[in-house]
Structure formats: C-alpha cells, structure tokens
Write a structure and sequence with these properties.
heterodimer; A: alpha/beta; Elongation Factor Tu (Ef-tu), domain 3; Rossmann fold; 7-stranded antiparallel sheet; 7-stranded mixed sheet; 34% strand; B: alpha/beta; TIM Barrel; 4-stranded antiparallel sheet; 16 strands
Chain lengths: 258, 303
C-alpha cells in the first residue's frame, strides 16, 4: 500500500455515466484481483479519497484499469482526466478474492451494476470462469467479459438476457445441483449479495462477497467503513470488520446479513 | 544561522521532540500509519479513545464528506483497555515518540477504571475525552457543563499517575469557561477543539447521510473556529493548550502556535495524506528556518 502520483494513459466513456480509466501505477505489479485503489480529488475542498475497484491490471506495462460510475462531484472530476494528466492514488488496498484456493475450480463470478468490473480481473486469474452479470437496462463491459468466459445476463427491463435480477438468471441456468459451480465470487448491491449468500448457503457452496461502504481514511485507521460480522473481529474485538483493510472480500458466512 | 532550530516543547513535564501530535480518533494506535512513515518523527501519538470494555460504535454510514470537511459518527468503536494494553501500547513503545492515551467512558466510574489500568503502563500522558458528540452518555454530556468538567477532572486527577489533558468540546457558548473549569479541577493541560456537531441530508434519498443523524464536523472547514477558540482558551488559563481543528500543513500549525497553543494535533488531514502529520512538523521547522528563528517556543502566543 502506498500513495503516489499516477499518470493517465487512457480514458473513455463506455456507458451512461460509466468510464474506463487506465493509469500507470508503480504498484501495478503487486495488485491482486478484488483489491481497490483510493483516488484523491485535486480540489482540496473534497477531502476524502474515493475508493474504486481495480478492474484489470497489466503487470507488463504497469497499468491498472478502473471502471467506475459518476456518483458525485469527485468521480465527475475524474471523468475529465485526459492522457498525460496526473492523479494522486493510493493502493493496492484490501485483501482481494481467494484466487489460489479456486484457481482450477469452476467459479461463478456474480456482478450487479457497478460491482461487475473487479470480476473481470479475477476471471483472468481463474482457469474456468463463468460470469453472471446483472444490469438495470444498459449493459457495459459485456464484450470484455465474453472474451474471458460465458456470461449469464440479467436485465431488470428484460432488454437482454433474463428479465429480472442476477439471481433469477442463476436459478434459471442451474436447475440441476450437479451443474452448479464450485464457488461464487460476487460484487454488487447489498440485497444482491445477501440473496446470493443465502442461495450459496442452501447449496452448501463457498461464496465470497466484496462489500462497499462510505470510507474516510481507506487504510484501516478511522473505523468508518465497517460491516457487521458474525464473529468477533480481530481489530476491535467487537463484531465489526473494516471493509477497507479486513475486506473488501469476505466469506459470506463471516458477514452478519441481518 | 547554523544548525537546526529547537523544536522541543514541554507539556506538564513531558518533553516532546516537536509540537506535532495526532488527533485522537484519526490515527488509531498508529499501526496503520506506521506502514507509511516512521512514527518517531512525531512529538506524540495520541491514540483513539479507549474504554474499559470493547465498544461496538454506531451503525453505518458513519462518515460523510462536506465542503472542505467531513462528518463522522464512529461512536468510539474500540477494543477496550485489555487489548489496548496488550497489543497497542507495546507497539507504540517501539517508537521514539511520546504516547498520549485518549480515554473515553459513559460514566465517571468507567473513565476511572481505564485511568487506573493505565497507571501501571508506560503511557506518557492521558487525554480525557469529555467532548465526543457521537455517544449518548458520557462524552459531550460531561464536556458542556463547567461544573461537570471540574468534577470529572478532579476525579481523574486523583486516580491518574500520568499528567492529564482534558479534551474540550467547541459545542459550548464560552470555551474560556470550560478551559477554566478544567484548570480548576487540576488539569495539567487542555486540548481543543473536538468536532463541531453537524448534519448532512441526502436529498435524493430523503434521509440523513449518517445513520446517527448528526456527526462531528472536522477538517479545514472548522479551522478558523478552532483557531479563535484556541486563542481564547490560551489567554484564559495558565496551563498549556494543545490546539487542533483543521490543521493540514506546517503553515496551519504555525497559526495555532502563534494563537497560543503549546502543541498541535493533525487529524482529518491524515485521511487525505497519511504523511500529513510529519509534513506539518517539517513545515514548522521550515518556517522557523525561513524566518531565522532558533526556537519554536519563540512563536508560541506571539500574536
């Protein structure tokens, strides 16, 4: 984890409010799938870093790709970055997905909305990735996902794939227990993660979820971004884990979903 | 001029190598920041508040950004004094810096239990948090009534082996009255300001930005208020004043020293730059050199 000035290599808008940003970062070689970075605004009135998941990494060129949605003034500012610009960045933050344990297993990578990007990077480290991607209506990153594995698509308006949410697509696809994947890696809205954790629990399959929360420091000091946990956490000995540094990826059973 | 200026300051007999410390709650017990810089560069580390037992804190969202500032309502989540003594104090003992332990509680008895446990440790000073706006009992309930401030200060002083700093709330009509109450109670120093109670509303979701509804405002937004209060307090009492509130640079720190603070704390700025505190210390030294000064004490209270 270190803070540095990263250089913008490329940026393009890939869907409504969604941008793909490539940065040259000194720590690129250390990045593991499921980790994230903190981006700092150049406007000092916006104090806090914005946590953004790492979509892909190229260790050869030392670049990381971030795919993010404009959610406020900070991310709007980032969407204006052009090649040659610099930006303060801290990373890589967090634990990432447990790739080594599932490398040769069939892993279903389940993403919803802006939770989809970190799954692409994970897929490049796994031998048998399959995606389940849920969108409201407009899709994005689908070509990238398809280039790496089969994609089950769900859209809320039914414009593509299964009409409904990503769990509907999963239930429709895996009607026989024998066809089920060996594990789930997921990132997306909390209701989606909760439903998937329940589904995986019923099937007795391992499920790892990447959580998000409002953060301040992003390095584990401020205790702003906690999630309730089933067991006692290592830091404060209560039932709160820090999403930034104890996570963002948790085994579903670790999380208190109530 | 030859040589470096003296950066040493003294608080109740404790000599700090420089006047820069960390603001409680923004720095944990230093472990996370120790990954970014050598904690020995600091005059002191002020730990996050520790209670007699683990506290779970408030529901999320706990933080929200505001213009040049942020609101927090962490609710003093902490592992309790046992873990703190076993894990955090030994970690800090590995650095050449003073250790100031921030103490929190819901009642006088709870504060005293922590203070008594710390008596046998090598903590250098205690800072008593009577000003947290995010817990229902204790915290600010003690810090907004001068009689209560004096009473708790007296009780803590009787139990404490280390010098005692009372951390004051800015959510009061007259900070001078509170500083004098702490002094009357026997405090060795006061530190100010804690956060200002604030609120943010998400107009799209029509709800409070923080689960706790209100939170403590910190960051550059509060610096002028903090500076004014540090000036007032330092002219109202004889004991040292430790100044904080929006300090993000050496220049900011120099302002607080000139207003009368004997030492300063860097808080929220560490969230934007993990090196903010050591950079502030360097910035003070650079200022002294630039102005041909040999001793930081020459600028304390100079306005």
């Amino acid at each position: 984890m270190r803070k540095e000035r990263a250089g913008v290599v490329f940026q393009e808008q890939i869907a409504d409010h969604i941008y793909s940003l490539s940065l040259k970062a000194g720590f690129a070689k250390e990045v593991k799938p499921g980790q994230f970075v903190l981006l700092y605004s150049s406007d000092r009135s916006r104090l806090l870093p914005r946590p953004i998941s790492i979509c892909q990494v190229s260790r050869e060129t030392g670049t990381i790709r971030l795919v993010y949605r404009i959610a406020g003034e900070g991310t709007r500012e980032f969407s204006g970055l052009r090649p040659g610009d610099g930006i303060d960045i801290l990373g890589p933050v967090g634990n990432g997905f447990p790739i080594a344990d599932f490398k040769d297993k069939k892993v279903l990578l389940v993403g919803g909305g802006i939770g989809i990007p970190p799954l692409l990077g994970a897929a490049y480290e796994l031998e048998h990735p399959v995606f389940a991607a849920g969108y409201r209506s407009e899709t994005y990153l689908l070509d990238d996902l398809s280039a790496r594995g089969r994609v089950l698509v769900a859209t809320e308006d039914g414009s593509l794939g299964v009409r409904g949410n990503v769990l509907d697509a999963i239930r429709q696809e895996y009607q026989k227990p024998s066809e089920l994947p060996d594990a789930f890696f997921a990132c997306g809205p909390l209701p989606m993660l909760r439903a998937l954790a329940e589904f995986a629990g019923e099937q007795g399959l391992p499920c790892y979820v990447s959580l998000e929360e409002r953060m301040a420091c992003g390095i584990g000091a401020c205790l702003g971004c906690i999630t309730k946990t089933a067991g006692v956490d290592g830091h404060s000995k209560v039932h709160n884990a820090r999403i930034c540094t104890d996570g963002p990826v948790f085994r579903a059973e670790e999380v208190d979903w109530s | 001029m030859t040589g470096k200026p003296s950066m040493e300051v003294e608080l109740a007999g404790v000599v700090l190598k420089n006047p820069v410390m960390t603001a409680s709650g923004t720095f944990g017990s230093g472990m996370e920041y120790g990954e970014f810089f050598d904690l020995s560069l600091l005059g002191a580390v002020v730990t996050k508040g520790v209670a007699d037992v683990p506290w779970p804190g408030n529901p999320v969202p706990r933080v929200a950004e505001t213009a040049s500032g942020m609101l927090n309502a962490i609710g003093l989540q902490n592992p309790g004094i046992d873990v703190f003594i076993d894990r955090d104090l030994p970690f800090l003992a590995g650095y050449d810096t003073k250790v100031i332990v921030n103490v929190c509680g819901h009642s006088e008895e709870e504060y005293l239990r922590v203070v008594e446990r710390l008596a046998d440790t090598d903590a250098d000073m205690l800072e008593i948090n009577i000003s947290c706006p995010n817990v229902r009992e204790g915290g600010i309930a003690f810090g907004t009534d001068p009689a209560a401030v004096e009473k708790i200060t007296k009780a803590v002083k009787r139990a404490a082996r280390q010098p005692v700093i009372m951390k004051l709330s800015p959510n009061v009509t007259d900070i001078k009255v509170m500083a004098r109450a702490a002094e009357s109670g026997g405090a060795d120093a006061v530190s100010l300001i804690n956060t200002l109670t604030g609120m943010k509303i998400d107009i799209e979701k029509r709800c409070f930005a923080l689960a706790n509804r209100t939170g403590g405002l910190s960051g550059p937004a509060i610096k002028p208020v903090a500076l004014r209060m540090v000036y007032e307090a330092s002219h109202a009492v004889k004991i040292p004043v430790i100044g904080m509130g929006g300090i993000a640079s050496g220049e900011d720190a120099v302002e607080f020293l000139m207003a009368g603070a004997r030492a300063v704390s860097v808080g929220t700025a560490s969230f934007r730059d993990p090196l903010a505190a050591p950079r502030a210390a360097q910035g003070i030294e650079d200022y002294l050199i630039r102005h041909g000064l040999t001793d930081v004490k020459d600028i304390i209270g100079c306005v």
